[in-house]
């Protein structure tokens, strides 16, 4: 399992079989790993538990093939059962990402152990109060957004009134300042957004369709990383 202190969420890719335009998930994972992405999440609302385990196995094998098992964080969305079953089968999975209505963070930490990575989707409604008051002792990063409305996850950013709350770059800069843990931003992020997003101070960006539905996923992944690195402020 991964050392929590080495987490790098700067270039974070989320993928599942429903987001690849019919292309093999493994091929697109290979593309982003070769491009240099630092975090990989397996997410599917349609795949069975056994299918999710096999996707996780394939992703772990690809990371091992490229010698990136200790550099790229491999997570599963939502499914604590899949993470536990995969580990039982000897698959190297670093942790889980959960939302507000999923299995509680403290339960994930109890079952996965102190060295596992746990990410949490930040609540859209009353976001800034939420990140200031939430106990972050059990989590490693917040996932926040959406930057834009997205068809990949239509319910992303839904407020209590059923309307989608998108986030401005000003909001995101404030979020980066206030959050006690790193923040990764997604939700409709495209290459055009990366320069300004990189300058907000967040820990990284996450994308789905910007890569998985691109005509050339690897080329697009490379462009995203290059844009991020070119615009990320240097630490003093």
Q: Can you characterise this structure?
A:
- With 236 residues, the chain is α/β, with parallel strands linked by helices.
- Helices cover 36% and strands 14% of the residues.
- The protein has a single domain (3-231), classed as Aldolase class I (TIM Barrel), CATH 3.20.20.
- An 8-stranded parallel barrel has the order 1-2-3-4-5-6-7-8, surrounded by 6 helices.
- Strand 4 (95-98), helix 4 and strand 5 (117-121) form a beta-alpha-beta unit.
- Helix 1 packs parallel to helix 2.
- Residues 154-164 have low confidence and may be disordered.
- 2-[(2R,5Z)-2-carboxy-4-methylthiazol-5(2H)-ylidene]ethyl phosphate binds at residues 150-152, 188, 208-209.
- Condenses 4-methyl-5-(beta-hydroxyethyl)thiazole monophosphate (THZ-P) and 2-methyl-4-amino-5-hydroxymethyl pyrimidine pyrophosphate (HMP-PP) to form thiamine monophosphate (TMP).
- Residues 12-211 form the Thiamine phosphate synthase/TenI domain.
Beta strand %: 5-15%
CATH superfamily: Aldolase class I
Strand order of the largest sheet: 1-2-3-4-5-6-7-8
The CATH topology assignment is TIM Barrel
Number of helices: 9
Using only CA atoms, what is the Rg? 16 Å
Average pLDDT level: 89
Task: Count every beta strand, where a strand is a DSSP E run of 2 or more residues.
Answer: 8
Low-confidence parts, pLDDT < 50 over ≥5 residues? Answer: 154-164
């Amino acid at each position: 399992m991964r050392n929590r202190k080495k987490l790098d969420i700067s270039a974070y890719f989320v993928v599942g079989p429903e987001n690849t335009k019919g292309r093999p998930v493994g091929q697109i994972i290979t593309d982003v790993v070769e491009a240099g992405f630092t975090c990989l999440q397996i997410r599917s609302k349609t795949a069975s538990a056994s299918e999710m385990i096999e996707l996780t196995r394939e992703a772990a094998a690809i990371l091992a093939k490229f010698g990136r098992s200790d550099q790229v964080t491999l997570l599963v969305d939502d499914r604590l059962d899949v993470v536990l079953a995969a580990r039982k089968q000897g698959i190297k999975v670093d942790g889980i990402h959960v939302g507000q209505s999923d299995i509680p963070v403290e339960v994930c930490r109890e079952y996965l152990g102190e060295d596992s990575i746990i990410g949490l989707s930040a609540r859209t409604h009353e976001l800034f109060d939420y990140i200031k008051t939430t106990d972050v002792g059990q989590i490693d990063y917040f996932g926040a957004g959406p930057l834009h409305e997205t068809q990949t996850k239509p319910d992303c950013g839904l407020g209590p009134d059923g309307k989608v709350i998108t986030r401005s770059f000003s909001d995101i800069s404030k979020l980066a300042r206030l959050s006690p843990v790193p923040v990764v931003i997604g939700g409709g992020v495209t290459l055009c957004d990366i320069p300004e997003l990189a300058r907000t101070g967040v820990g990284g960006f996450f994308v789905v369709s910007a890569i998985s539905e691109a005509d050339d996923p690897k080329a697009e992944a490379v462009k995203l990383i290059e844009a991020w690195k070119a615009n990320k402020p240097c630490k003093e």
